[in-house]
Design goal:
The protein is built from nine helices and 13 strands. By secondary structure, it is α/β, with parallel strands linked by helices. Strands 3, 4, 5, 6, 7, 10, 11, 12 and 13 form a nine-stranded mixed β-sheet that branches. It has a two-stranded antiparallel sheet with strand order 1-2. The longest helix has 27 residues.
């Protein structure tokens, strides 16, 4: 079997998560894909995948080899796209991951326009608030809303969002408005599970940075769930303006402690390598940057 096919099968297994799914993707039988990967491991003299009854995972050697395979296959893919690019027609599959609420509220309305402009690009969109591994999980582009810590990943800033402290007017009428950051400790709070700040909420005031230890009575790994609970008068939330902006404008929520400078974090497109950035990834990132630059969700 030729090396190109071996690498294609190996990468497909890593990204699909199983030999069966990889076979479906490549239109090969599970046996053919499994045999290809086994022959590859034999030829290299190294185990690339750890196989259990429940999951597959990359070994250290497999992770390194996967990165090189992605680069090589990416070069081949980009070479094959040259004719399409010249005609303004990028082609191929794009695996995208985005946070759940942002993916529904802000990105979902954009996909139709992108597909109209680039009809030969196939989108495979996964929404999840957990921090995915861009390389190991085989995503071409990941949308992250954070202060990026990983300098090994290439990224492009798409937009900014403010983190706002909010509650419903009914909740505040019942329990009172916090007059200072320290007062939050006496209130019911609804916490977002994946928030980088955890249960210690931090605010910038005229007197400097102030922190308060909260004791959430509800936790959720989804921002829209936190919002729904706040609208049901269950407590304070600390959520981005693209989630709470509409309810603030309509009066269903009230910003709490508006004199505190709201935290601001950025929205990024993250991808493994600029050197081997395919044309379809480039047009997607350019499209999102332009579309989100026009967005005024606050």
């Amino acid at each position: 079997m030729d090396r190109f096919r071996e690498m294609s099968c190996f990468v497909a297994v890593v990204e699909a998560g199983s030999f069966v799914a990889a076979g479906d993707e490549l239109r090969l039988s599970k046996a053919a894909v499994s045999r290809s990967v086994m022959e590859l491991e034999t030829r290299l003299g190294a185990r690339l995948l750890q196989r259990t009854t429940r999951r597959l995972s990359l070994t250290e050697a497999g992770r390194a080899f996967y990165g090189h395979c992605k680069q090589i296959l990416g070069d081949v893919d980009e070479a094959e796209q040259v004719v399409g690019v010249v005609s303004g027609n990028p082609v191929g599959r794009l695996r995208i991951n985005a946070p759940f609420s942002f993916g529904i509220l802000q990105l979902a309305p954009l996909w139709g326009g992108f597909m109209t402009e680039y009809p030969d690009v196939e989108l495979d969109i996964t929404l999840s608030d957990r921090l995915v591994d861009v390389v190991e999980e085989g995503f071409d582009v990941v949308i992250r809303i954070s202060r990026l810590q990983d300098s090994t990943l290439v990224h492009r800033r798409l937009a900014s969002t403010r983190i706002l402290l909010c509650a419903s007017p009914e909740y505040l009428a019942r329990y009172g408005h916090p007059a200072a950051v320290e007062d939050i400790a006496r209130h019911q709070v609804i916490a977002y599970t994946y928030a980088a700040w955890g249960d210690v909420w931090r605010f910038t005031t005229e007197d400097g940075v102030r922190e308060v230890q909260t004791r959430p009575h509800v936790r959720s790994n989804n921002g829209d769930t936190c919002l729904a609970l706040a609208l049901a008068h269950q407590g304070l939330i600390l959520q981005p303006d693209f989630i709470v902006g509409g309810d603030l404008a309509a009066g269903r929520l009230v910003q709490v402690l508006p004199q505190c400078t709201p935290a601001q974090i950025d929205v990024y497109a993250v991808y493994p390598s600029r050197k081997h950035l395919s044309v379809k990834v480039r047009v997607l990132v350019d499209y999102l940057a332009e579309a989100l630059d026009r967005t005024a969700w606050a």
